[in-house]
Amino acid sequence: MPKVSVIMPVYNVEAYLRQCLDSVVNQTLRDIEIICVDDGSTDGSAAILDEYAAKDPRVKVIRREHTNAGECRNAGIDVATGEWLFFSDADDFSGAEMLARMTSAPGAEGADVVVAGHRILEEGKVFAKRLAPRFLKDCGDENGACRLWLFLDAGVMPWNKLFRRAFVRALGVRFQSVPRHNDMRFVCCGLAAARRIAVSNTCGYVYRRGRQGGITESGSGRNVFLFADVLLSVRAELERLGLWERAALAYANMALAHCYYHLLGESDTSAFASLYSGLHGRILSELGLVGMDESAFAAKKHYAYMKATLADDTPLSLVMLVLKERYAAWKDVAYRDEQISSLQKKVSELTRKVNALSAGSAKID
Structural domain of residue 351, as residue ranges? Predict the structure, then answer.
């Protein structure tokens, strides 16, 4: 049994695939299998997979007609033999010690899931996204994994996590067959069901954000309500598995955050209007968020957004609230910059006086 089965959906990522594969085959943890599921690629991705499989017996290639990343991940799970499952996107890459550090994280031996930090690559810049201190402090408690912030802090993406294969098989949860957000149900159910979650505050995985045609970027604008449909299916699956009571607050916080992430991040005017109308008229209610007390939400601004949305059938109240928040934030930044500028001027003046005194002392000597 390999220590880790790396499962990688591949679809038309010729430009990034070699970097991704190199980062996996060169992991310092050598005891792995690499299951690449070619989702009907029409570029040079298939040839690259064959090349790596010929060089490294750990690389296995599965070919499928084009569907989506969720179906590919399920296909990988079906043939995986490792102790742990790790899901990598083919347009991202990883640090060489990532899997070694995650599998040896404190408490990993007795955990069902290991969660790590990650890095984000955007417009040529890389920055670390570390786990929140509250997550590092508390989530290892036995049967204490589901708190207000669990899904938000751990994230609903699969690629910063290890899932114990026996745990996944016993739970019986699968990735959804949808074009986007197909990982949310699998991850949320796994986190909610885990008896113990270990944490590795490393940032080995590098997520390439904003790539046109990427797994999480593709399909934008085609169905603005898809995320809400997926959230409803997450709730239904949590209920089916008997996890709802334990996960309800974590779910509410995650669901509300996703509602406003999608609404406020929508750049198309028509899509924004449709989504706002949907939130006001039915989505917030269908998700079970309407009527919940403010104390149930860790992010008070999300609760304020919901109140503004429910109170007004046009987005005016919400937009004014967001503008006020952003103006306040701008003022804070402007004040901080003004203080920094003032301090820099004082330092420059003191430096000038010190230099002048030093020059005077030199003349006296």
Answer: 327-360
